[in-house]
Design brief:
Beta-lactamase family protein; single chain; 2 domains; Diverse_Enzym_Activities; alpha+beta; globular; Beta-lactam/transpept-like
Length: 345
């Protein structure tokens, strides 16, 4: 039975390398009980290739924040003005002429329910998003610049509005800065202390300007963007491998990083701007429709994806974990994820 599954998985992955958009991929799938483990690379990647995991980093940041909450150093209901001078934050969230900045909470940051705009994907007055600029050339971005860019954009709703969520990197950038203030350490040291060293993630680190990792493809163009990745910090700056990400993902759901009793609190789903994605606290949920999935019904997966084609998800109905990347900005990985999961039917 296992040989049959492996053959199916190999076939699906090899077919995914079309050399039009997907030039390399690495996938790791493991069962929750550890009885099944498969890792495979194809195209221009190897099983130990390091790549920018992008927004999967948000799960690492969430794990740190929940750990700090568990140690009573922080609360879900703490407001951001407890950690920054009011004048520094002023103008961050002005909706219909009224300022809501100072009532933004840790819970709202974790769940993308602040209503804040996204400095990364939304266009400024010049008609360009930071994503557009990053695709043209690599450059660094400071937290202050991200904050000012956010202030120049319009919020989408009042923070905490019932049933509303808008995915925005600044939410996790703020969480990273808050963690630094509480721990009195740099972000790299915080990830090392709370996650990387305890889990022995030997190929995982917060990106630096000197970091070497797989070039990220934009259509047929490979992009080297170490300055941008180093700037992405708590919202998207970690570099890792599929195997290290698997260790992290399993640990996130099994209580090795924070008290497992917090998990049910994280499963409070709201729709975000990318249908059919939903967001809880520090994690996404995807339930694919018949039109969008090669399978019907497609099983629920919870975890996180990244804008560079990365993914780290748990499929409860199959008790499977899946991590990896297709390393392509202009193609989402969900069809491949579901085709791979289908091999276990």
């Amino acid at each position: 039975m296992e040989t049959s599954i492996v053959n199916k998985l190999d076939k699906v992955l090899n077919k995914a390398i079309d050399n039009k958009k997907v030039f390399g991929s690495v996938i790791n799938i493991e069962s929750a009980d550890g009885e099944f483990s498969w890792i495979k690379a194809a195209g221009k990647m190897e099983t130990d290739t390091q790549y920018a995991i992008a927004s999967i980093t948000k799960m690492y940041t969430a794990a740190v924040i929940i750990k700090l909450i568990g140690e009573e150093l922080l609360s879900f209901d703490d407001t951001i003005d407890s950690f920054f001078p009011k004048e520094y934050l002023s103008g961050l969230h002005i909706y219909k002429g009224k300022e809501y900045t100072y009532s933004i909470t840790i819970r709202q940051l974790l769940s993308h329910t602040t209503g804040l705009p996204d400095w990364y994907t939304e266009k400024n007055v010049k008609g360009k998003s930071y994503f557009d600029e990053m695709c043209e050339k690599d450059r660094a971005l400071t937290f202050d610049e991200a904050l000012e860019r956010t202030k120049s954009l319009s919020p989408h709703f009042i923070n905490g509005a019932k049933g509303k969520a808008f995915y925005s990197d600044i939410n996790f950038d703020l969480l990273g800065e808050i963690a630094k203030k509480i721990a009195n350490k740099e972000l790299e040291c915080i990830y090392n202390q709370f996650i990387i060293e305890p889990l022995r993630l030997e190929h995982t680190s917060l990106g630096k300007a000197t970091s070497i990792f797989a070039p990220i493809y934009l259509n047929t163009n490979p992009l080297n963007r170490p300055l941008f990745v180093a700037s992405a910090g708590a919202s998207g700056g970690i570099v890792s491998t599929a195997q290290d990400t698997m260790k992290f993902l399993k640990s996130f759901y099994t209580g090795k990083l924070f008290n497992k009793s917090y998990l049910p609190m994280l499963y409070q789903w709201n729709r975000i701007q990318w249908f059919p994605m939903e967001y809880g606290m520090g994690m996404m949920r995807c339930k694919m429709s018949r039109l969008m999935s090669p399978l019907f019904p497609a099983p629920e997966i919870i975890g996180h994806s990244g804008s560079t084609g990365t993914f780290a998800f748990y499929c409860p109905s199959k008790s499977l974990f899946i991590t990896g990347t297709i390393n392509q900005i202009n193609k989402h990985p969900f069809q491949l994820i579901y085709l791979l999961l289908h091999c276990f039917d």
